[in-house]
């Protein structure tokens, strides 16, 4: 019996089957071979298309890169498959969106993004780019309801800190923000400035904060509803500013571990005394406090790690022996004249912006302590080089020069 096989190789010619003893001959030019090859090729192509479609759909469901309202399949695929750097990805998104390229956005460096003010149309290609990079910190300002939605939807689940300022949002925008807070499991810190909290969204916002993993919440100059938000939430680290009424509810908060207050003039700090034993962070920036008001507070701080007293007239007279026990100390814009006794064994970071401390005093403090970072404007470069030699961890030294 002769059997036609679709193979065009000499090794198959005149070969006898060992099992059946049948003689096999090949006719590679027969029509059956062409039909068989065409059918196999078509099946393979169909299988490849099905596999590619399954992989694409799976990746699409995982990355969710169409959060900015993209419905074009080609754009989604290019954005998902772009493995270049930030600038290359942003240029590809602008080209596919037919949007103008903003050179300032090409220089952004994740994971910490500081986004300049822009309109919603310019924000769309940027959101496409953000969705492809692990962003852990994001700062933005002057966003509308739609702009806020585009930005928040582009951020992945790895975002840990968000700072928003001057938002032009309505009740719709606050509800979008509340939904993002409740759904994001990695978000740890949220700071909002100069954005009026609408009364109708307070309950929704409070519910989202209580369900979230937030441990730091800062609402500065957000209107009278700020006090109600803090009153009904239990975030351990809070930041307030510009609203005197919030101070009345703080003594009743039993789980507070850190307080940051700015631009609220205070003539009395007795309300802070019951909270001092629990605090590990305390910042009173530009609050018009004096050493007489501050010293009783410093005596009560038992587990303090970070103290911020910038822009206050506390020198001389403040208890230096109490300040030296913290790890991070910010005494910028204060009339301090000397660092004698101020730098303790635990101190790691010292901020001296806009102070009269000389370079020689900084050198002496660095050589006699375990400081790992000194931050001061107009620091002499030669002093910075000497500091690098004496600090315990030179790689962490930060030389800040501000004109």
From TrEMBL:
Residues 15-29 have a biased composition (Low complexity). Residues 1-29 are annotated as: Disordered. This is Uncharacterized protein. It comes from Neolecta irregularis (strain DAH-3).
């Amino acid at each position: 019996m002769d059997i036609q096989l679709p193979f065009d190789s000499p090794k198959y010619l005149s070969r006898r089957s060992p099992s059946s003893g049948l003689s096999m001959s090949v006719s590679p030019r027969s029509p059956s071979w062409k039909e068989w090859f065409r059918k196999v090729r078509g099946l393979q192509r169909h299988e490849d298309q099905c596999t590619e479609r399954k992989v694409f759909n799976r990746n699409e469901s995982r990355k969710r890169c169409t959060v900015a309202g993209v419905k074009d399949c080609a754009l989604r695929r290019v954005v998902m498959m772009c493995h270049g750097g930030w600038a290359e990805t942003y240029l590809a998104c602008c080209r596919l969106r037919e949007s103008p390229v903003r050179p300032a956005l090409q220089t952004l460096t994740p994971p910490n993004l500081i986004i300049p003010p822009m309109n919603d149309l310019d924000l769309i290609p940027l959101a496409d780019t953000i969705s492809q990079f692990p962003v852990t910190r994001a700062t933005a300002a002057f966003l509308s309801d739609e702009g806020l939605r585009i930005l928040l939807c582009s951020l992945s689940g790895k975002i840990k800190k968000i700072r928003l300022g001057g938002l032009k949002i309505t009740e719709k925008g606050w509800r979008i923000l509340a939904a993002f807070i409740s759904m994001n499991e990695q978000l740890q810190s949220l700071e909002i400035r100069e954005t009026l909290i609408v009364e109708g969204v307070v309950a929704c916002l409070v519910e989202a904060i209580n369900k979230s993993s937030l441990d730091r919440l800062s609402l500065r100059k957000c209107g009278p509803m700020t006090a109600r938000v803090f009153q009904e939430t239990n975030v351990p680290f809070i930041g307030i500013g510009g609203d005197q009424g919030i101070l009345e509810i703080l003594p009743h908060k039993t789980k507070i571990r850190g307080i940051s207050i700015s631009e609220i003039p205070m003539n009395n700090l007795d309300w802070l005394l019951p909270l001092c034993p629990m605090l590990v962070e305390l910042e009173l920036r530009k609050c018009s406090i004096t050493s007489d008001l501050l010293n009783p507070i410093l005596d009560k701080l038992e587990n303090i790690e970070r103290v911020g007293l910038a822009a206050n007239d506390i020198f001389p007279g403040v208890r230096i022996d109490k300040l030296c026990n913290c790890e991070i100390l910010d005494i910028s814009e204060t009339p301090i004249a000397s660092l004698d006794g101020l730098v303790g064994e635990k101190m790691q970071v010292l901020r001296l912006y806009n102070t009269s401390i000389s370079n020689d005093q900084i050198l002496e403090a660095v050589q006699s302590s375990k400081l790992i970072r000194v931050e001061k404007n107009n620091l002499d470069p030669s002093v910075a080089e000497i500091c690098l030699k004496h600090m315990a961890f030179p790689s962490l030294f930060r030389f800040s020069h501000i004109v």
